[in-house]
Amino acid sequence: MIGLSLEGGGIKGSYQAGAYLAFKKCHIKFDGIVGTSIGAFNGAMIAANCGDKMVEIWQNLDVANALCFDQDKVAKLKKKNPLVYIDFFKDILKNKGISTDGIQKLVAENLDYEKLMASKIEYGLCTVRVKDLKPLYLMKEDLTKNNINKYIMNSCYLPIFKMEKTVDDSYFLDGGFYDNAPYNMLINKGYDTIYNVGMHGIGFTRKPSHDVKIINIKPIRSTGGILTFNKDKIHESIKMGYYDTLRVLKNYDGYNYVFKYRNKLYYKRMLKKIGKRELRRVKNFFFAQTDKQAIIYAVEYVMQREKIDYYKIYNIRKEIKKIKKNYEKDNFVYNFVRNLRVL
To answer: What pTM did the predictor assign?
Structure first.
């Protein structure tokens, strides 16, 4: 069986919306989905066969509105004035935390409980009960129409939020404080292949309880903060999630960029005009273990320096030709790339 585990990370969860689009493009379907924190919400939407709606939520998300923040103060925050930040956090302390009303409303308006229960996809989440610090792993059969939205909120309950008793007269904490990647929920049910999509969020990751195939998908570049108000950053994070996931699913080459796959021999032939000393210098500079890694790192280095768009699927041969033609900087990495042999 194939499973999907979605880690927590606040607004970084937009990355998982992009990952979902890549899974959809590659026609990968899941038998079960589990998540922690924002991953619990994203996972519930996908498990209810509402993944496209989840993507729309992220594309149109007004973070300030979802967190019940004053729009004028958020606008001032974007100017990065330290005094405004101090006033902002004073307000949070005065209110004993950030209100969860906006998030609860967002979940209530968009998650269809009936669709989730009718779906053949298993679903689960992780949260932590405060009174005994007990981690709770709950599958959808453990949840009811009256408490599912509350438990999804419980899974997201960071200490910055205003603490409120939600279920059984108890307080809860973000599941990431115990298990930010709850793939063991699926492993213990017999799943043999699990895709784990993370965003470098805050939390602890448990070791797999059994030896199964876990395919990790995580961003190399920053996806923004857990409470970013920057819509452009959210949209970029969605694209990053899409291309990072596509790279893994289609076995593409690249680290920061995505290149169509070529085998080691293809890259080896590029080094015909490269001296051993020159190759060693590039390998040491990038801590590359193989010739193929050294070439890809070098090409990506030039592409990043020249601010070439990350979000496309490239043919590395064509990119090297463009570098040879367009860039003449006196830099040993540039020189290395220009000396590569391409047919």
So the answer is: 0.91
